[in-house]
Amino acid sequence: QVVVDFERLGEHADAFRGHDVGFCCLGTTRRKAGAAGFVRVDRDYVAQAAELARAGGCKHFILQSAQSANEHSSFLYLRVKGEVEKLVQAVGFDRCTIFRPALLLCARQEFRPAEWITQRFLGAVAWFFPTAHTVPVETVARAMVASVLQPSGEKVEVLENKAIHQLGKA
Fold first, then answer.
1. Is 9:46 a contact under the CB 8 Å cutoff?
2. Residue 38 within a domain
3. Which pLDDT belongs to residue 144?
4. Residue 119 confidence (pLDDT) above 90
5. Separation between Cα atoms, residue 161 and residue 137, nearest integer Å
6. Max CA-CA distance within the chain?
7. Quick check: 128 pLDDT over 80?
8. CA–CA dist 164, 167 (Å, integer)
9. Is the separation of the CB atoms in 161 and 67 below 8 Å?
10. Structural domain includes residue 71
11. Known catalytic residue: 81?
């Protein structure tokens, strides 16, 4: 494990060398980082990390994005996620797998009241519609590993929440 300074990511190019597969789950919140900080972390840092990974020999890049990501969205969060998807695809990896999970079910270190309430509500809904609105982070992780071990053959693959659930059970 290597700790890098994302403000000076280019100085850490060695950390990105010699890896066949790259996993990127980097992100923050607008509330925590402000609008400009959110864009810097969720788009700029991710795009730069992808470029460094490709330059370092990475063949398959796996990006965690978000359900409904769209570079033309009027919502900042969805627009930035859509923009970074396009930027990562443009890097030119042999394979690029984009995960678009719905609300992630996980235990966070920090308390986010609105997310906590939403997780509880949608967690209950998941009993009836298990792949519609939520996904446990463990399922996403298993699906990411499965995407490496069971390649689809596509250069760019976008996996929506239902597909993540299916692959995470494989």
1. no
2. yes
3. 98
4. no
5. 12
6. 49
7. no
8. 5
9. yes
10. yes
11. yes
Is residue 141 exposed (0-12), middle (13-18) or buried (19+ Cβ within 10 Å)? middle
Distance of CA 148 to the CA centre of its chain: 15
For 104, the token pair is 């992630």
Which residue among 81, 86, 155, 169 is the active-site one? 81
Give the pair of three-digit tokens for residue 73. 């969205």
* Residue ranges making up the domain that contains 83: 13-168
Number of H helices, E strands in the chain: 6, 6
Mean pLDDT, range 133-155, rounded to an integer: 93
Q: Please tell me which residue, 114 or 100, carries the higher pLDDT value.
A: 100
CATH number at residue 91: 3.40.50.720
End-to-end CA distance of the chain: 28
Strands 156-160 and 95-100: parallel
pLDDT at site 111: 60
Find residue 64's DSSP bridge partners.
99
Write down the catalytic residue from 45, 77, 86, 169. 77
- DSSP assignment of 28-42 equals --HHHHHHHHHHIII
As a residue count, the chain comes to 170
| Residue 96 confidence class, pLDDT cut points 50, 70, 90 | very high
Q: Determine, yes or no, domain membership for 3.
A: no
